[in-house]
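I am writing to request your help with a piece of structural work I have in hand. I set the record out below, with my sincere thanks for your time.
___
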Amino acid sequence: MPVNASGEANDVIKSSNIVWHQASVDRTRQAERQGHNSAILWFTGLSGSGKSTLANAVNAELFARGLSSYVLDGDNIRHGLCKDLGFSDHDREENIRRIGEVAKLFLDAGVIVLTAFVSPFRADRDKARALVNAGDFIEIHCAADLEACESRDPKGLYAKARAGQIKEFTGISSPYEAPMAPELRVESGKRNLQDCVEQVICELEGRGILRAKAAG
């Protein structure tokens, strides 16, 4: 069992005399008012695979439809909630654990929450999935090969990693475990952004999370 810096298991609750308080407005009532169900859209892929770009483009489409959604972006989260974490395997695990818990809260609030993180390890993604009921967690693999991701390299991270300036960089000096059976695989390295957005939206409509737009 993974442990923290104090040698304690990560899943141990240290606080005592606490109880879980049920919300006065549940997801069902939120869905009735908002006209859509909540869900966790978990975008995963190599750095440069288009996770954040796609998540934000899907979010813009949801906003245009008047729906309640929010993007949890990897870099943004590390500016606050996870600013105490680095990129060791242990810190990556804790980073994803925290995001999974936050995403669950958004889910309970009736929001479609989109997470854009490399989240390189299958076990960590599976733990995030296990926090919620079946059907609430939609794993979206932004599939782009290493060559395509390096050719984009908007932050120059791959070049720095190959030069040894960044340690434990996924795809170069740290592994990426691609999803074995994601709910959706998007060929973000080959298809244009709008096609990828439409693929995600169609998936959400097919699952009954969104109502399909009326023709015309």
The chain has one domain: 34-206. The radius of gyration is 18 Å.
